[in-house]
């Protein structure tokens, strides 16, 4: 029932409101905040790798880049802002390590050049405003561009600094190292994934070994020992697998079973060094004579090997 | 030199001769046609010049045709000769041995032709020649004015590049120079990327040639439309044949360039393993510049976007496009600009610079002296919107040119500064992203308004597009909480909904093509912004170890090693888990090519509609069973490639209708156009900002009596020149701080030495200290030990101390090394290399000289030499 003009106005209002809700909501609602590793990556991405051609420190695989990433992580964790970290690197390596040239020396030219391009281009190319407006248009273009840079600079320096403080306190609280995003939910997820994979391919010993390592890390030694037992069943002649099974049993507290397994291993392979050492250690209290003999054999095998 | 190589060189020389003959013949034909009468180029062709001139013109045209065809055949024969040698692996040829040495499959042997500098020059020559032949085939009446001149220009271009190819010929190339990287033998896409790019570059030569021909023949004017065009779809044949040809060739070039650049970016992402697709590398930028020029040209000459001074824009941009192509060749082949992609530095640099001058200067001179007249076409529609529409279209072209100029500045200015002052300035992705972001946003806004800016039968309704934009903006803003992504996503939705073509027919096919291309670009823009919301994590994994990022985990199962032909492969098998569920197995690889001493990473990528999982194997230790793995989860990467494909498809759709046009349609309105032969009267500045050449606008006001409707030219904004000069001078003065020559205080260096004793360089304050960085895995470090020991013995009594830094080493190996080389000074252990980073270490060995006040006064990369000790260390000790 709304006629022509009113309908247009109403439609325009609806559109404007939706858009405003979206943009303002994005600005105002709390964003998840950068994880520490993301900040390290962001700062490292703005540094050029000095020993490679054309790569930044975040992507490069060279050892120097790894060391530089560690330095960036240390400094950010200590509470410095990204700008301060970049300045530190500029002092150590020279301005050319910064991928975004600073506002000093020749870097000024690279800041001024886009402004100059806009100042030249607006009156030359865009003749619409008419005769007198050309210098004003040029100045307006330059002002808009410079203003944009200032705004994004300010937002950029405020955000990560706040995030750094929060991340640093969180890390200090948990005492975890910087790159331990895999802890917690990631760990559980990985376990489930490994279990699903083992179910799908029960004959693959590598999967079971990986699952067993993971379970041991998570402290579930009994399940780890089960998995290692399965590996031994699948590969009865593999002395290393038997040894790992025995080690898992020891961790789980069943030293007697471990001893049995180790004795069986020695039947399979008499001069397997790790088995000799572990069995010798286990039998030290109960059967010292045998233990000494085993350790002697172990020493011999090691000498022959080196 | 084998017979084949001699034959190839002879073929190239003959082709050069044929090209010269063709150029001369077509120039004669153009002159004859030009003298024969006016109104030739309207496409009628039914009024050939009379009498003797006609005979001379036709004879020259025939000679030109024969010469051009002969040139094409000769170049094709040379290429065939080289290909045959490659396929047969004729290692008597040094070039073949260098490029296709070991046992490579047939496909790679064929594409190896353009994997090195000389062969790629030959491929470029083939592309240019092919384009010239195509123009010859498509010109309906040989001998017609503009076409003849254009063919003459093309012949001249072929001749110039034939000279370049003769200098850098694969037939006479030596076996020196580097082998092409194994990257180029690794993937199918590398065979396609250069030919696509070269096809696009060569196709841009035709608008250049047409622009030169039009300027020479002064035929750039389309008379102003005296009345609004008849209702109905704008006829594809309307406008002069010149502009229609420019449009067709530019569109073809644009499609090829978009496909080539997109393929290069995809290859960089999928094959190289660093996880990105655009590094803002100088060679990449050099191929982007012609693409930007072609896009601007498309929007100036496309019949539905003609507004304002579009003829001037078209002529200027058409020439600029090819000039930028030659600039790209210069950047890629001369080695003056440092880049990963550049071919080895060669003697071609000055020659290519000469070619650039030869291509640029004559055209520029022509442009300035015979500028197209400024006849503003009156746009249809109510005049209230007409000015706005014209303004928006002009703004769009201006924005594209500004982006072009900024990319050119970023690419060339660091090299220029390096050559002039010797100082290095790095310009990388952060600078480009920050500087180009506002312009890209403005361009996106204008692209959203495209359906209403382009001349159409009926403007589509605004409401659905606006509603879609607002709804998507709201949803994305609230879900993702990134305001920029919300805005861009809203604009993309508006592009998709607003431009939906309705109805059928040939011109609606064009509308559909333009809509598809715009949707493709919008999708790519959304993908680029969304990419910054990804997460990257890296870790060293034992079997069973996991790296996790944003709910996605990869768990190491095992590492295997095997031999493939020509290289060794270490492959890691990882289980991929998404939100706790097993989602498959990924197998990233590390490949070692012993012949080239190159280690390449082959990433494993899982593409999904929502995000991409990118797993790279950075390091593998099969004995210990550990692997260094990087996991990157990036949203919407697949949309980027989809967008690229859509853009190319859209461009192809827009090309197709023109070819089906029957010749009769083009000859409409002969009367209108013949009577209005424009003369260049008052100058109008073609607005082209070629790289680095900025000119202040200055022209005298003088109204032309022949066209009374025109307004007098505006007087120069005189303030602009001084304004610019003062801005630059001011920034230079304010910014150019004197380089800091004072020595900086020594960075901290404290830790334990190899025996466990704490050491600190600050304890040695008061003596001159030589800080020497070494490691047991660094071979040259052995050579410098005796020199340092000698220096320590000679200068120790005078106050010289030596302190080492043992960087990224194993304690056992380090102690062995120290014992072997007789190192009897202490060294601070730096297991992770972080202390050395503070000293600005770039490689080993490096030695720093610290004075008695604890400041670093000198730094010597490489092994210490006695000369350095005498020249620098002794004076400092004795000071």
Structure description:
The complex is a heterodimer of chains A (306) and B (879). By secondary structure, chain A is mostly helical. Chain A folds into 3 domains: 35-100, Orthogonal Bundle (Helicase, Ruva Protein, domain 3); 103-165, no CATH class; 185-305, Alpha Horseshoe (Serine Threonine Protein Phosphatase 5, Tetratricopeptide repeat). Chain A has helices at residues 4-28, 36-45, 63-77, 82-93, 107-125, 133-174, 185-200, 205-217, 221-234, 239-252, 255-268, 273-282, 288-305. Chain A is elongated, with a radius of gyration of 33 Å. Chain A starts with a helix and ends with a helix. Residues 157-183 of chain A have low confidence and may be disordered. Chain B is α+β, with helices and mostly antiparallel strands and 879 residues long. Among the domains of chain B are: 1-37 and 51-166; 182-221 and 238-396, no CATH class; 534-636, Tick-borne Encephalitis virus Glycoprotein, domain 1; 744-878, Glutaredoxin (3-Layer(aba) Sandwich). In chain B, the strands form 4 sheets. In chain B, strands 2, 3, 4, 5, 6 and 7 form a 6-stranded antiparallel sheet that branches. A 6-stranded mixed sheet of chain B has the order 11-18-17-14-15-16. In chain B, helix 6 packs antiparallel against helix 12 (348-369) and helix 18 packs antiparallel against helix 19. Mean pLDDT of chain B is 80; it is low at 37-49, 221-239, 664-720 and 733-739. Classes of the chains: A mainly alpha (306), B alpha+beta (879). At the A-B interface, helix 1, helix 2, helix 3, helix 4 and helix 5 of A face helix 13, helix 14, helix 16, helix 17 and strand 1 of B.
């Amino acid at each position: 029932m709304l006629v022509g003009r009113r309908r247009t106005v109403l439609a325009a209002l609806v559109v404007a409101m939706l858009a405003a809700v979206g943009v303002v909501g994005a600005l105002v609602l709390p964003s998840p905040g950068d994880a520490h590793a993301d900040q390290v990556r962001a700062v490292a991405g703005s540094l050029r790798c000095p020993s490679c051609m054309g790569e930044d420190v975040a992507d490069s695989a060279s050892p120097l880049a790894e060391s530089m990433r560690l330095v960036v992580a240390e400094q950010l964790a200590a509470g410095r802002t990204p700008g301060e970290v970049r300045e530190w690197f500029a002092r150590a390596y020279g301005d050319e390590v910064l991928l975004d040239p600073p506002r000093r020396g020749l870097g000024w030219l690279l800041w001024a050049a886009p402004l100059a391009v806009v100042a030249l281009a607006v009156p030359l190319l865009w003749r619409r405003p008419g005769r007198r407006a050309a210098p004003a248009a040029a100045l307006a273009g330059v002002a808009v561009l410079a203003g944009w840079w200032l705004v994004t600079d300010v937002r950029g320096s405020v955000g990560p600094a706040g995030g750094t403080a929060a991340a640093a306190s969180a890390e200090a609280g948990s005492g975890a190292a910087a790159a331990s995003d895999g802890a917690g939910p990631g760990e559980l997820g990985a376990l489930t994934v490994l279990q699903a994979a083992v179910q799908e391919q029960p004959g693959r010993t590598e999967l079971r070994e990986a699952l067993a390592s993971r379970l041991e890390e998570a402290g579930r030694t009994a399940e780890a020992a089960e998995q290692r037992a399965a590996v031994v069943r699948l590969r009865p002649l593999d002395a290393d697998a038997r040894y790992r099974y025995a080690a898992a049993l020891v961790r789980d507290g069943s030293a007697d079973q471990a001893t049995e397994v180790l004795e069986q291993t020695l039947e399979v392979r008499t001069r397997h060094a790790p088995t000799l050492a572990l069995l010798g250690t286990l039998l030290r209290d109960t059967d010292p004579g045998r233990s000494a003999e085993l350790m002697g054999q172990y020493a011999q095998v090691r000498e022959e090997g080196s | 030199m084998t017979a084949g190589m001699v034959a190839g060189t002879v073929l190239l020389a003959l082709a050069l001769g044929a090209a010269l003959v063709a150029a001369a013949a077509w120039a004669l034909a153009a002159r004859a046609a030009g003298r024969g009468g006016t109104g030739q180029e309207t496409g009628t062709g039914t009024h050939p010049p009379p009498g003797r001139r006609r005979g001379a013109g036709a004879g020259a045209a025939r000679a030109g045709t024969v010469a051009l065809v002969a040139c094409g055949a000769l170049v094709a024969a040379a290429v065939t000769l080289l290909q045959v040698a490659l396929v047969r692996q004729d290692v008597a040829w040094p070039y073949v041995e260098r490029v296709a040495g070991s046992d490579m499959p047939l496909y790679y042997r064929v594409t190896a032709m353009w994997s090195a500098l000389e062969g790629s020059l030959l491929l470029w020559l083939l592309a240019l020649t092919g384009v010239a032949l195509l123009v010859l085939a498509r010109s309906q009446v040989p001998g017609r004015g503009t076409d003849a001149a254009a063919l003459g220009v093309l012949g001249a271009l072929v001749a110039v590049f034939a000279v370049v190819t003769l200098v850098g010929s694969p037939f006479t190339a030596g076996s020196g120079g580097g082998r092409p990287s194994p990257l180029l033998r690794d993937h199918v896409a590398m065979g396609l990327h250069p030919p696509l790019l070269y096809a696009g570059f060569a196709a841009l030569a035709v608008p250049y040639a047409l622009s030169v021909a039009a300027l020479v023949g002064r035929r750039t004017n389309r008379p102003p439309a005296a009345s609004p065009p008849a209702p109905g779809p704008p006829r594809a044949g309307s406008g002069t044949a010149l502009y229609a040809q420019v449009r067709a060739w530019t569109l073809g070039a644009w499609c090829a360039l978009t496909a080539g650049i997109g393929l290069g970016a995809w290859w960089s992402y999928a094959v190289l393993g660093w996880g990105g697709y655009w590094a803002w590398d100088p060679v990449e930028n050099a191929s982007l510049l012609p693409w930007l020029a072609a896009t601007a040209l498309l929007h100036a000459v496309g019949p539905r976007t003609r507004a304002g001074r579009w003829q001037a824009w078209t002529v200027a941009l058409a020439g600029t496009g090819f000039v930028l192509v030659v600039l790209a060749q210069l950047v890629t082949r001369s080695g003056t600009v440092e880049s990963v992609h550049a071919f080895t530095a060669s003697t071609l640099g000055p020659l290519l610079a000469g070619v650039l001058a030869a291509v640029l200067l004559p055209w520029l001179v022509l442009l300035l002296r015979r500028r197209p007249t400024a006849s503003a076409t009156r746009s249809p529609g109510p005049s209230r919107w007409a000015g706005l529409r014209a303004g928006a279209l002009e703004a769009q072209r201006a924005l594209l040119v500004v982006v072009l100029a900024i990319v050119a500045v970023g690419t060339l200015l660091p090299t220029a500064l390096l050559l002039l002052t010797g100082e290095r300035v790095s310009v990388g992705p952060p600078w480009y992203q920050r500087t180009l972001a506002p312009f890209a946003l403005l361009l996106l806004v204008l692209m959203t308004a495209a359906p209403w800016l382009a001349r159409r039968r009926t403007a589509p309704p605004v409401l659905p597009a606006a509603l879609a934009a607002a709804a998507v903006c709201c949803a994305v803003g609230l879900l993702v909480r990134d305001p920029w992504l919300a805005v861009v996503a809203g604009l993309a939705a508006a592009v998709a909904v607003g431009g939906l073509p309705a109805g059928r027919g040939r011109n609606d096919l064009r509308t559909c093509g333009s809509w598809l291309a715009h949707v493709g670009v919008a999708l790519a823009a959304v993908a680029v912004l969304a990419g910054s919301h990804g997460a990257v994590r890296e870790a060293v994994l034992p079997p069973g170890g996991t790296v996790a990022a944003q709910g996605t985990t990869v768990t190491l199962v095992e590492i295997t090693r095997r031999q493939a032909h020509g290289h060794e492969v270490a492959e890691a098998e990882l289980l991929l888990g998404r939100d706790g569920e097993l989602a498959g197995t990924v197998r990233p690889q590390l490949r070692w090519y012993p012949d080239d001493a190159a280690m390449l990473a082959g990433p494993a990528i899982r593409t999904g509609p929502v995000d991409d999982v990118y797993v790279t194997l950075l390091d593998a230790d099969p004995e210990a069973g550990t692997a260094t793995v990087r996991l990157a989860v990036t949203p919407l990467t697949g949309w980027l490639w989809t967008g690229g494909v859509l853009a190319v498809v859209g461009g192809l759709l827009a090309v197709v209708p023109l070819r089906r046009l029957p010749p009769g349609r083009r000859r409409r309105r002969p009367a209108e156009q013949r009577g209005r032969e424009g003369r260049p009267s008052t100058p109008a500045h073609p607005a082209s900002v070629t790289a680095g050449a900025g000119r202040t606008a200055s022209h005298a006001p003088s109204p032309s009596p022949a066209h009374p409707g025109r307004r007098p030219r505006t007087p120069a904004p005189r303030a602009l020149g001084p304004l610019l000069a003062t801005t630059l001078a001011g920034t230079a003065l304010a910014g150019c701080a004197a380089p800091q020559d004072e020595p900086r205080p020594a960075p901290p260096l404290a830790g334990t030495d190899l025996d466990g004793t704490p050491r600190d360089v600050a304890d040695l304050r008061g003596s001159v200290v030589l800080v020497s960085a070494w490691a047991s895995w660094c071979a040259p470090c052995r050579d410098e030990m005796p020199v340092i020991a000698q220096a320590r013995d000679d200068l120790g009594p005078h106050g010289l101390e030596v302190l080492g830094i043992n960087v990224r080493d194993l304690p056992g190996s380090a102690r062995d090394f120290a014992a072997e080389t007789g190192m009897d000074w202490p060294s601070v252990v730096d297991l992770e290399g972080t202390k050395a980073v503070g000293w600005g270490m770039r490689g080993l060995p490096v030695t720093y000289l610290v004075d008695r006040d604890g400041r670093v006064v000198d730094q010597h990369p490489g092994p210490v030499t006695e000369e350095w000790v005498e020249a620098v260390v002794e004076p400092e000790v004795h000071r």
